[in-house]
Amino acid sequence: MGDFAIRTEGLSRSFGPIQAVDNLNLEVPAGIVFGFLGANGAGKTTTIHLLLGLLEPTSGRATVLGYDSRSQAEQIRARAGALLEFAGLYERMTAEDNLDLYGRIYHMPAADRKARIKELLVHLDLWDRRKDQVGKWSRGMKQKLAVARALFHRPPLIFLDEPTAGFDPVAAAALRDDLAGLVKREGATVFLNTHNLAEAEKLCAQVGVIRKGRLLAVGNPDELRLKRGGPQAEIIGAGFTEELLARLRARPEVAAVEAPNGSHLEIQLRDGSEMAPLVSLIVQSGGEVEEVRKGAASLEDVFLTLMEEEQPR
Amino acid sequence: MSDLWTMIWKEWKDVLFQGGGWRAWIRPLLMLGIAGVYVPLQSGRLWLSLTPLSLFVLLWIPFYLIINLIGDAIAGERERHTLETLLASRMPDRAILLGKVLIVVGYGMGLLLASLLLGLVLVNLTNSEGAWQFYPSDLLLGVIVLGLAVTLLGAGGGVLVSLRSSTVRQAQQVLGIGTLVVTFGVGFALSKLLPGDFFVTYTVAQLLLFATLLFALIDVVVLGYAVVRFQRARLIAS
To answer: Smallest Cα–Cα separation from B230: which of B162, B175, B180?
Structure first.
């Protein structure tokens, strides 16, 4: 397996005229949470299907946990856990039977299954409801149980496809916390499909951005922010005239300036630039400065920039 | 083998007894009430001769039950979005398919055998003529073997129809209507094609043997095709 849990080379899959995954070259180090970011229909779910060997690639190859996805898919599925687009729980069965089923599927001994059911359900605060039919549960509870099912047989690699999609912010944050806690405790590699950038920022050591099946960027969120977003400053005050903006734009450390309204100035800085000379310039030019905020671009800024760069002109 | 048992355990919990509770027993008890109580009591001692009516009831009811259950087991899994997760696990395709087929066939055969036993006991208790009368052994064996062939056909055909159906309801409607059309179509064709003295020339046991061989042949084709169709890549891509 080496240092990479997943490695793809020119991985492609088309459905008729639609190129769902296009020449994907990706390396996911073992033991991290990898976020695969993209809008709906970007090719994220198809990528998981290809990595699990559920679909054959049109061209290229993928190696998952050291196994070829085309010829050794059974070995991959025996070692991976998955929470796909839908929770996939048997709603007429109880919570503990749902987990027990997947323990049986992975040939876990009965005593181990019993202990593991208790361990996970207690951790997720679902133990008291273990005898309930799952169909009577709330969506958040079902999704927590589905996460537990994906982790149940202690797989070294877990695929999670939009685990918080459609949740309200509070429920999503709670599930994210549970997920983060479980993943840290289990020490597995996680391949997380999401279009929730806050989720990726919080959970992921590395992210890849995909659009229309093509990988646009890959790296850790900080690297991407620096590469794609750069540092930026926000100034609250008054007197931000056109003349002042023109002076700022002329400075070498400034990449771009915008004043969305008279009391708010946004400055994109070039790497390594200092703010102090720019604040002096603003004051000398008649502007008033009440507050200066400096920071990096968010992952959302990076994502949107990448999407804009790739838009057909 | 353990994979097969796992699937049978799962289908038992999910499809047959749907999480337990008294409601799960309504359908099998209703069927048993018709095939094992009502029709035998109406027929009296004639029931024990395994007349064509007895045979029709004994074979039709498990078949009807099976085509409903197999629709739930396959089209239902797809409709409820549980099939994709199951396919993403290590469970082999064949174990999934055979587990589903075996549980519904076992259920149908269980119902057939229970109906035969219950009918035997009730008819003897209510029409006592001293010694107990049993089914003729050759006919009993013929009914059981033909029952197995018929239930396998219901399961195999049910798999093929369910794989092309997006909902349980659609699968059950197609199977229900299709079964009626095929049964009466074939019956009508046989009545026209077979010589008039065909059913007099052969004994019931011989006719059962012919029918069993014919159904067994169709089973091999239908179940073989179901195995070919039930593959991960096809199911995920469809």
So the answer is: B162
Q: Do B82 and A89 touch (CB under 8 A)?
A: yes
B46 Cβ contact list (under 8 Å, min separation 6) = B54
- Say how many C-beta atoms besides its own lie within 10 A of residue B210's C-beta: 12
How far apart CA A145 and CA A185 sit, in angstroms, is: 17
For tokens 């397996």, name the residue: A1
Measured between beta carbons, the chain A residues lying within 8 angstroms of B18 are 92
Tokens 């949107």 appear where?
A304
Residue in B211, B16, B213 with CA at minimum distance from that of residue B102: B16
Is the confidence metric ipTM above 0.95 for this complex? Answer: no
Closest by CA position to B108, among listed B149, B49, B55: B149
CA angle A19, A25, A26 (to 5 degrees): 120
Which distant-in-sequence residues (6+ apart) come within 8 Å of A279 by Cβ? A235, A289, A292
The maximal CA–CA distance of chain B, rounded, in angstroms, is: 65
- Give residue for tokens 């073992």: A30
Task: Report pTM.
Answer: 0.79
Instruction: Please state the three-class secondary structure of B14-78 as a single string.
Output: HHHCCCCCHHHHHHHHHHHHHHHHHHHHHHHHHHHHCCHHHHHHHHHHHHHHHHHHHHHHHHHHH
The alpha-carbon gap from A138 to the nearest alpha carbon of chain B, in Å, equals 16
Tens digit of each residue's pLDDT, chain B (238 residues): 789 999 999 988 887 766 556 677 788 888 889 989 999 998 888 888 888 788 888 888 888 888 888 888 888 888 888 999 999 999 999 999 999 999 999 999 999 999 999 999 999 998 877 788 888 888 889 889 999 999 999 999 999 999 888 888 898 889 889 888 988 888 888 888 888 777 778 888 888 888 899 999 999 999 999 999 988 888 887 6
CB nearest to A88's CB, from B18, B81, B233? B81
